[in-house]
Amino acid sequence: RKEVEQDPGPFNVPEGATVAFNCTYSNSASQSFFWYRQDCRKEPKLLMSVYSSGNEDGRFTAQLNRASQYISLLIRDSKLSDSATYLCAVGADGLTFGKGTHLIIQP
Amino acid sequence: DVKVTQSSRYLVKRTGEKVFLECVQDMDHENMFWYRQDPGLGLRLIYFSYDVKMKEKGDIPEGYSVSREKKERFSLILESASTNQTSMYLCASSATPSDTEAFFGQGTRLTVV
Which residue of B has its CA nearest to A94? Predict the structure, then answer.
């Protein structure tokens, strides 16, 4: 059984702070890794792919740790608009999504 | 702008009705998926299709069937709707089964009464 686990939160973080959360996966054969963002009552949208060498896009950094089987997402200088649910997705013969981590940025 | 379009945003159906949820994508993707999303349970895969007329069961196929007669269209069918099928249904498509971005439709919130 493919398992992808996330801390559901909510993470309440003051604006401007740095926040990080992880996602663990059980299938060692997993080959692709993604972070999606889902706003309330909206569909998930790709935030970034996660590469073996890590990936940075502005204030967002994603990393992969194959040995410990987890991926991470770091958000620096958080904005109010970062408030959302962040879903990790792991690919191995199909995409399996975590249940999501709810992030609330507070003014 | 790439698009996955679901036919309805909101649906209310009665128990026992046969329900059709339609999904169309304009990206020429071979792979299409149906998920349901429930609070505390996340996204769960119902069915997926890697090609026209091809279908595979996901993690929770019971009570559902699918149809893929054309590449761009993937339909989810609730043979006899039940109240435990009240949920948000999300269709997605992608160029590959798991290596590339999945694009989602806007979702259909189905209520079975």
Answer: B98
Inter-chain CB proximity A95 and B102 less than 8 Å = yes
DSSP chain A: ---EEE----EEEETT--EEEEEEE--TT--EEEEEEE-TTS--EEEEEE-TT-EEETTEEEEEETTTTEEEEEE-S--GGG-EEEEEEEESSSEEE---EEEEEE-
Which tokens is A16 given?
């401007």
> Which of B33, B58, B98 is the closest to A91 by Cβ?
B98
Question: What are the mean pLDDT values of chain A's consecutive 10-residue runs (107 residues total)?
Answer: 87 97 93 95 95 92 96 98 97 88 96
CA distance A77 to chain B (A): 26
pLDDT of residue A2: 65
* A46 to B102: CB separation less than 8 angstroms, yes or no: yes
Are the CB atoms for B103 and B25 separated by under 8 Å?
yes
pLDDT at B98: 84
| Predicted local confidence at residue A86, as pLDDT | 98
